[in-house]
Amino acid sequence: MCSGRVDPVFVLRAFAKGVDGVFIGGCRLNECNYTTQGNYDTLNMVLLYKRIMEHIGLNPERLHIAFMSGAEANLFAETVNSFVERVKKIGPLGKAEAIHPETLLARLAEVTKLVPYIKRVNQEKLATRLHDPAEYDRLFTQSDVEKMFSEIVAYYIDPAKCQACMICARRCPEEAISGGKNQIHVVDQAKCIKCETCFVVCPTRFNAVMKISGAPVPPPLPEDQRTFVRQKA
Ligand code: SF4
Ligand code: SF4
Predict the structure, then answer these.
(1) Are 27 and 69 contacting, i.e. CB atoms less than 8 angstroms apart?
(2) Can you give the residue ranges of every domain in the chain?
(3) Do 52 and 22 form a contact (C-beta atoms < 8 A)?
(4) What CA–CA distance (Å, rounded) separates 225 from 26?
(5) Which of 198, 201, 202, 211 to mutate to test the pocket of ligand 1 (most atoms within 8 A of CB)?
(6) Who has the most CB within 10 Å: 38, 129, 131, 173?
């Protein structure tokens, strides 16, 4: 599989299953077999998720990426062996970091749920092409990551503006929006992955989807108050 296809969800799933370390091997940079140069994308993903691992209390050295050609079997073996040694020294996942297994699973689940949001807010930096390894540590800083998590937005449908057109509910990838053609729509915050689709697709003449950050999300409208009454023209 092309290293560019390695989604952060795969990495988080591996840690959630209890693996102690994740190694990603990609083709040499600038020697992509396709035109996509996806190995640069994966490098940036790894740089970001190392910071996120620190944020949730995990040793970032448990995640490693290296680039080599298919003809470099020796380099591959050396790189993998040295990574295995490194991970053995770090110790078992979670235990070495003194994180309770349930806490770790909950933290990994929370980050996994936020992957679409994390991709969206870091879109520009994730598309960067870094040519000098000295720049790697500067692409994402710990304070960038802390800020990102402290500014997480929630999507809320303003009941006074929703016209029950159903567009958002049809387009939500997580079925997190409920409502029918005569029902004011509501977002199930527990299911929402913060992909922003509803905010983008709600027609501008309605503008019913709001982004809320740093303030509590109002409770959903009770079921018996959700009937939408269309105004006669
Ligand atoms: S942001 Fe909107 S479209 Fe995306 S998951 Fe949440 S409710 Fe669904
Ligand atoms: S797209 Fe906007 S107006 Fe239409 S149902 Fe969703 S929130 Fe309501």
Answers:
(1) yes
(2) 3-148, 153-233
(3) no
(4) 54
(5) 198
(6) 38
Helix axes 101-113, 8-16, angle to 10 degrees: 160
Predicted local distance difference test score (pLDDT) of residue 124: 95
Q: Which pLDDT band holds residue 142 (cuts at 50, 70, 90)?
A: very high
Determine the Cα–Cα distance for residues 86 and 64; give it in Å rounded to an integer.
10
| pLDDT tens by residue, 35-54 | 788 889 999 999 999 999 99
Q: Classify residue 127 by burial, with Cβ atoms within 10 Å: 0-12, 13-18, 19+.
A: exposed
Q: Which atom of ligand 1 is nearest to the CA of 196?
A: 1
From 11-15, 184-188, 229-233, the region with the lowest mean pLDDT? 229-233
Please tell me the distance between residue 229's alpha carbon and the centre of ligand 2 in angstroms: 14
Please give the average per-residue pLDDT across 149-167, as a whole number. 95
Angle at 20 between CA 15 and CA 24, to 5 degrees: 75
Cα–Cα dist 185/181, whole Å: 9
Closest CA to 161 of 133, 186, 196: 186
CATH T-level assignment (fold) for domain 153-233 = Alpha-Beta Plaits (3.30.70)
Contact predicate 26/72, CB 8 Å: no
| Predicted TM-score (pTM) of this structure | 0.85
CA gap 95, 20 in Å, rounded: 10
Q: Which of 155, 157, 201, 228 to mutate to test the pocket of ligand 2 (most atoms within 8 A of CB)?
A: 157
Q: How confident is the model at residue 79 (pLDDT cuts 50, 70, 90)?
A: very high
Ligand nearest to the CA of 155: 1
What distance in Å separates the CA atoms of residue 199 and residue 65, rounded to the nearest whole number?
35
